[in-house]
From TrEMBL:
Residues 1-183 form the CheB-type methylesterase domain. The lineage of its organism: Bacteria, Pseudomonadati, Pseudomonadota, Alphaproteobacteria, Sphingomonadales. GO terms for molecular function: phosphorelay response regulator activity; protein-glutamate methylesterase activity. GO terms for cellular component: cytoplasm. Its EC number is 3.1.1.61. It comes from Sphingobium baderi LL03. This is protein-glutamate methylesterase. Gene3D superfamilies: Methylesterase CheB, C-terminal domain. GO terms for biological process: chemotaxis. InterPro entries: CheB_C, Sig_transdc_resp-reg_Me-estase. The active site is at S6, H33, D126. It catalyses: [protein]-L-glutamate 5-O-methyl ester + H2O = L-glutamyl-[protein] + methanol + H(+). It comes from the Bacteria.
């Protein structure tokens, strides 16, 4: 699973990630737009609130089910063909590094139909073309209902680029995730 969020991300993720049960069978890859001049405190914030292992993604690391991987500040997070992670300092995308599109597009190539891509609240277009790539690869696209997002710009852009994506509020997203992994 790949999740992308920007403005309002912490609040949305604090509802979704702690709801995932111990033993969750998918790795969870998360990109949040974090300014490069600020340290990434997301791991310490979520470690005590989640039943899953929470860590910062490392270059060349293999993904493990039931682990939440946060992209480090100022690095793009990508998924290699073998499912391992890689980090890149390539140019920002949509003024962001890490960028959601970079993660989603590489994860779509690696995981295809096994990928769930989720775009949450945020203030730019990042995630829209990446979510389209997820759905075109046969994966499931989910977008936070813009009416429930703290900042609806990213969800609106994702829905415009990918009308086939499922739209839900945060509780609905949690339900979809639990259903998706129950099979």
């Amino acid at each position: 699973m790949a999740i992308g969020a920007s403005a309002g991300a912490v609040e949305a993720l604090l509802q979704i990630l702690p709801a995932l049960p111990a033993g969750y069978r998918l790795p969870v890859l998360v990109v949040v737009h974090v300014p490069r001049d600020r340290g990434n405190s997301l791991v310490s914030l979520f470690q005590t609130r989640c039943r899953l292992r929470v860590k910062e993604a490392e270059d060349k690391e293999e993904t493990c089910p039931g682990t939440i991987y946060f992209a480090p500040s100022d690095y793009h997070l990508l998924v290699e063909a073998d499912g391992s992670l890689s980090l890149s300092s390539d140019e920002p995308v949509h003024h962001s590094r890490p960028a959601i599109d970079v993660l989603f597009e590489s994860a779509a190539d690696a995981f295809g139909t096994g990928l769930v891509g989720i775009v949450l609240t945020g203030a730019n277009q990042d995630g829209a073309s990446g979510l389209k790539a997820v759905v075109e690869a046969g994966g499931m696209g989910i977008v936070q209902d813009p009416a429930t997002a703290l900042v609806p710009t990213m969800p609106r852009a994702a829905l415009a680029a990918c009308p086939a994506a499922r739209q839900a509020d945060l509780d609905g997203i949690i339900s979809l995730l639990l259903e998706q992994t129950a099979t």
